Amino acid sequence: MSRDALLALCTLLASLSLAGAVLVLRGGLRERLQARLALVTAGAAEMPGQGAQLLALAPLAPSQLALRQRILRLLGRSPHLPPSHAFSLPLVLLAALGAGLVAAWAIAWLMDPLIGIAGGGAVGLLVTYGLFRLEADRHRDALFLQVPDAISFVLRAVRAGLPVSEALRTVAREMPSPTREEFDRAVSHLAIGTALDQALLALAERTRLAEYKFLAVVIALQAQTGGNLGEALENLAEITRQRVGMRGKILALTAEARLSAKILIALPLVCGAAIAVLVPGHLTPMVQEPQGRKMLLGGVAALLIGVLIIRAMLRSAAKD
Hints:
cell membrane; elongated; membrane; 14 helices; T2SS_GspF_sf; 81% helix; Type II secretion system F family protein; mainly alpha
């Protein structure tokens, strides 16, 4: 099979993959909505007031979980992200498809069409996974910055004489997104009979924030042993405020390193473009000769690996 035929086949497979992904993502959505409406309708007569809302907020059974959600979980998307903090799925699919096609064409042109098809598919999956990880990290960072305010809300409500459950409802009403949505889920769990500490532990598991685990432990210990809950919450609020401030200091201290990393990443691309403009034909062997193509592909792979290593080092420094 000729190179052009394989490239055409690659494009056809990518188009079919996109169409199949769209159908899969759309498929099951109607059934899921109907299942939720059936739950609300069946429970509305027996549970007046907010009963229908609680049933609508309850998670579906595994047999009712849409195939769409399972595929998204395999690709790395968190099922707990609110819509306001999630990337648009069509845009993610288009970005993955575009990156996959470009990678498939480049690898097929530099090396072999069959390797290009496999490499393009791998790049498309990596782009999808990376975008889902990015949205999850952005959501988690936004939650982390709002943790001190959320605990301070709980502290003020407890000192005003309100129970902890009502304090959580206050947070769900008054805090901005995304903390509002997460505490609204915790309040919904309380309304259907979940224990307070278990609802907070579930909140910590969803958000992957240790601060909410601390909050659950503080409230659980106070419920079992007694003591001044207001003082414990005040200490916890101060600790979380210091942790948020420390993270800001770390980001400020690593700003120079992050700028240097961006310069190092852009330097090969800028130098290559400058050489191509100033000395036309100097890089022609890198494109026309098979050995040069392999060297070019190896350089791109090394650059990508370096970007990932630098990013991992910076994230590790920020976490520490």
